[in-house]
Amino acid sequence: MSEFKSEFLRTLQTRGYIKQTTHEAELDTYCADNTAVAYTGYDATADSLHVGHLVSIMMLRRLQQAGGKPIVLIGGGTTKIGDPTDKEKSRPILTEDQINENAAGIRKAFEAYLTFGDGPTDAVMLNNADWLDGLGYIEFLRDVGKLFTINTMVKQDTVARRLKNEQPYTFLEFNYTLLQAYDFLELSRRAGCMMQLGGSDQWGNIVAGADLIHKMDGNQAFGITCPLITTASGAKMGKTVGGAVWLNADKKSPYEFWQFWRNTEDADVGRFLRLFTDIPLDEIERLENLEGAEINNAKIALADAATAMLHGDAAANEARESAAKVFQEGASGDALPTTDVAKADIEAGMLVAAGFTAAGLTKSNGEARRHFKAGAAKLNGEAVADDNSVLTLADFDDEGLLTLSVGKKRHARLKLA
User: Fold this and answer.
1) In total, how many domains does the chain have?
2) Is the same domain home to 278 and 379?
3) Is 257 exposed, middle or buried (0-12, 13-18, 19+ CB in 10 A)?
4) Entry pTM
5) Cβ 89 vs Cβ 161: under 8 Å
6) Which residues are catalytic?
7) Of 52, 103, 97, 101, residue with least CA distance to 76
8) CATH of the domain at 175
9) What is the domain range of residue 261?
């Protein structure tokens, strides 16, 4: 293990962020005076980022904590192509309005992790549409395209896999590496940014950008990738039975976010505490060495810290208290995700299965009925036995609320509106 001089790289190393680096010694020198500038890019393919993006966001946070300057690059331009990396098929093409709406949604989460402003260490948010939309195609091919060889590009994992499996790989997608490399070049020129951070699936694109900067401007640029996070059981980080764990509260409530971390597998607790919280390393070591039922205290510490960082202390406290009520009382608590339903729909005979789907506990009425048959679904703490049962006004309490549950850990409420 290398002994880094720079605070930033030491932090990344001790907390488990580093998968690959370019020019390790020179990179350490660049970071050593704590004035490094680095960016990570996020294409606007959805209106929120999710937990799978959180490692790279935390890397930017570590950079700012060490005195460096983070740049968040929104891919308003590259989203028009779609990053083909690790994708088995082409992504749907989004309209410009959809991209702009998604970009606005993505911005929300970053203010919880980074301090934005005009100071030397303040984060800035840029959009690559500002320079990509104005590129002249012929000029771009002449100046940039000539520096990339097909020989190298077809060796990239995504391209090689698609070609081997005889799956379409469009000329549009083939340009993505060039455009991401050009982003790095533009940021080096506009903002003095000489370092790119990203997941290990972006290694080829990051190296291409560093090479382009060297070839066109004669400067040395650097890249760091983090490992793609999977759980101890092999599941992809941030994927649950209920879908992606979004960062925006309107897509995943603070309670659901807290519960996601609370349900961490025992073997992952220490690693996730290092990656996703600011808890000091000596305290993490104490927490991860707890045994038996006490490991749950470490999971609660993880859930509290991760939720407070994104949603604030009050939301984290409310989520923890609601979770305790759910455990003690079966299913209650003000922080539970709550969905409004029209009184008229209940009076018309809304299926209980439809209630589970409306609450987001199931993706379809058929899935709800499968939970009924397995005995895993409950209405106000009582198992749902009849596939075709309907909700009635009597199911709601004096405050117009009822509680639905799938298993022991997933709960939601319906509220009369």
Assistant:
1) 3
2) no
3) buried
4) 0.79
5) no
6) 45, 50, 53, 87, 91, 180, 201, 236, 239-240
7) 103
8) 3.40.50.620
9) 253-329
